[in-house]
Specification:
Chain lengths: 271, 271, 271, 271
């Protein structure tokens, strides 16, 4: 690997040097600008007025991202692996629609996929203390995944049963035109969103709707409780992070521990 | 009891053998498919187009479920008890409507009761580590049942009083046509669902509505607090239950612990 | 005080004898029935149909409650104090409207005040283990009252400022016809109720509305956190309730306490 | 500094004397009255009727606040620093619009900025035990700021991606006229506000909307969990801060404790 390629790699793929950090911040700004332009282009009034400006900016961003894409392929030691990685595909999809719009009319709308590049922001965050907080959050959510799955399963079952019931009770006139639509309404109500595009009209329907609302209002306590408890534990583990057994290097020892729970090594008492 | 019946019983009613587990998963898939078909059939556009396909699928599912039903009766050591059990009645109700639709027009709508069979999913979950999580959740909810009852009672009282008040203040023009409807509106508002089909028009009504909203916004903290505290305790009990040091009787050992953190005693590995 | 009056007092005012408990349950049923009748009477279709039945039931309930009212005055050792107590006034207000409706047309609507008598349910609850749960809840809420006041004050300040801002931005056309109405909209949005009777139309208004929504979504964590923490502490105190100093009878000792925090008495170590 | 100026300073800027406290309470009442008048003036019906009264009150408040403003400049030892401080600018902005309305028509609407003066309420709270509670809340929120930033960043990313997706799926007819508007709808749905001014019409759109709702319903558990855990820790720190046993250095003593629960040492009574 040449010195240039190694240097490029450190700047483009990593973010632990000032140049690498600067590159990432510049990329972040470009992505946000580019997504903003795509968003604004979708506003009819603006598109009519500034179409040419939008087109020019779109092509500028696309050319910059294309150069970046090929620099990435050039500098990475394993180009094939990069091209077929998640970010490699996103990087490709972020530039393709502009080129396609030369041949197929209206395909520039696919540029919205560029927003996925915003996920790269995560890498910049990795440099700062955000990583620890992110880990605590992720660990808490992963630990509570099973409980949340049980909870979600129960909710889905409820939603299907209540949705079917409301279809039979309310019928076509009130907007409950089919069971899937009734289920959609039940989700809208249970999650306390409440659009109001469909609302029960009969007394019985409103009674059942009331029960669904109170259930939805109470049920939210369950995921909150799950995540809070896990976060509290994850936090405690995160705090005792500094408590690493000097003999076997396991982590997560309780503050009051006198012995390593893994190898039985006797700890020095904490000052 | 013959060997065949015993073998069938283990496959159909239990789920601790590969065959039994496979049977349950197949049943799960069939129930979900069948419920999906009933749901789609309720969509007018689809019913007009694919009525024959729907009828054929409906009859196929019904015949499969009928065979399953009689196999259950045949294999269980206590058929009468099964027939009149909750799941026995659900299994019967899940096949009856299709047969009834031969005689009574429109009775196929009752097939939606088949969704109740989804409750069988719970049994498959019982096999996996979901059982522990489910138990922690259930224990937490049961322990907080009394507190939640006190909370719900207070909320209902509030809802009746505020609903009556809004009926007197807003009157017929704003959609508060009766006290039950006013109570319905109060529940819609207090649970922060907010359909908007009924909304206060007078200044006084909007003022009271604001208070109801802020109350509802704050009140949700109460069930959340209750469940979180109970879940935290249930969690602690769940964790510490299995791990007590046989030497010094301290609790709260991690599942992966090999040694007591207090006295350094070496644990037997968990089975 | 005669034996009859003392016996009546124990039945009517207390609930620790079988007769007293029965009286309270009967009263509870009557109040719920009476409130249900008043509610149903407000439904136009039902009033037209069953007016005579409603009137008869209304008079029956009123006569029963009147007898009960005078029995209460007769049996209580301090009649004046009862008459001017909160429940005394509620009991009087619960019977007056029916008598007034003989002279003033339409005054029977005031009967809705009868729902306040439902507060008596609380007394029946006092008999059961609900009292402990209620105390834990009340203690937790009272302890967090100051924090919740700070929180509510901040929210109200925000709501006034944002409401005024939205009035200037959106103006008359979008339904923000005055600052009070804009403040009402802000409360509707911040509490995630979202009726949709007023909704921002301009791009800037929708941008600010988005910020208000995300704020409201996040801010709810604050009262929840407050109540959970207080409830957790109240719970712990509730648990250590059994830990009473045998010397000075103070409560609330920590589980690990070796000495009474009030009188310094040395505790026996817990088994 | 003259004695008069020093005395004025203690009354106007501080709140630890009866006169200073009285001044702050009077100011609080005046600010609330003044903001109420500005709010009521924006109601068309009231403005038409009571325009003259409103104008008179407005001028009275403005003159009082002007006198207060100059007294503040006179009494403070560093007038320049006060004038350009946050509250100094707010105090100026709170009186300017009335004077401007003499020259520029309609500028009295800018008076709504006066609501910012309500922030002074915070200072009165500083005197009471609210300060401790406020500090516990602030510390908890500051400690969880990084976690909440990670959470908000993830939510914003999701909102942009889902908003773009819904724009492509639903299109112009359902009200999703542009990507920014689609993003606005996603925020309205994810935060469970649910106005209903825009709602999905296609089956696919309603399916994605359902997922967004359930996500929003579950995601709220994350900030709640973060704040609860931080508040719990902040609370523990807040409690133990003031009470450490001077003999054995154990923490967590109750505010009413007279003796150390660990070593029985007799505490000095708190001032």
């Amino acid at each position: 690997m040449s010195a240039l390629r190694r240097k490029l790699y450190r700047i483009i793929f990593e973010a632990d040097t000032p140049a690498g950090k600067g590159f990432d911040v510049a990329l972040l700004v470009l992505i946000i600008l580019s997504v903003t332009i795509v968003s604004l282009e979708s506003v009819v009034a603006l598109r009519r007025e500034y179409l040419e400006l939008f087109l020019r900016l779109e092509w500028s961003f696309t050319i910059i991202f294309t150069i970046e894409y090929f620099l990435r392929i050039y500098s990475t030691p394993r180009p094939i692996k990069y091209i077929f990685s998640f970010f490699g595909l996103v990087d490709l999809l972020a530039i393709l629609p502009t080129y396609l719009s030369l041949f197929i009319l209206g395909s520039q709308y696919l540029l919205v996929v560029r927003v996925l590049r915003l996920l790269r922001i995560a890498r910049i965050f990795k440099l700062t203390r955000f990583i620890n907080e992110g880990q605590v959050l992720t660990r808490a959510l992963r630990a509570s995944a099973t409980k949340i799955a049980v909870f979600l399963g129960t909710v889905l079952l409820l939603v299907v049963i209540i949705g079917s019931l409301m279809y039979l009770i309310e019928g076509q006139e009130s907007g409950y035109t089919s069971i899937p639509k009734s289920i959609y309404w039940t989700i809208v109500t249970l999650t306390t969103v409440g659009y109001g595009d469909i609302a029960p009209q009969t007394a019985l329907g409103q009674f059942i709707a009331s029960i669904v609302m109170i259930m939805g209002y109470g049920i939210i306590a369950v995921p909150t409780g799950i995540v809070t408890v896990e976060m509290s534990r994850s936090e405690r583990l995160g705090v005792s992070h500094s408590r690493v057994c000097p003999n076997c290097h396991t982590e997560g020892h309780l503050a009051e521990a006198n012995f390593c729970y893994n190898c039985g090594y006797s700890f020095e008492p904490l000052a």
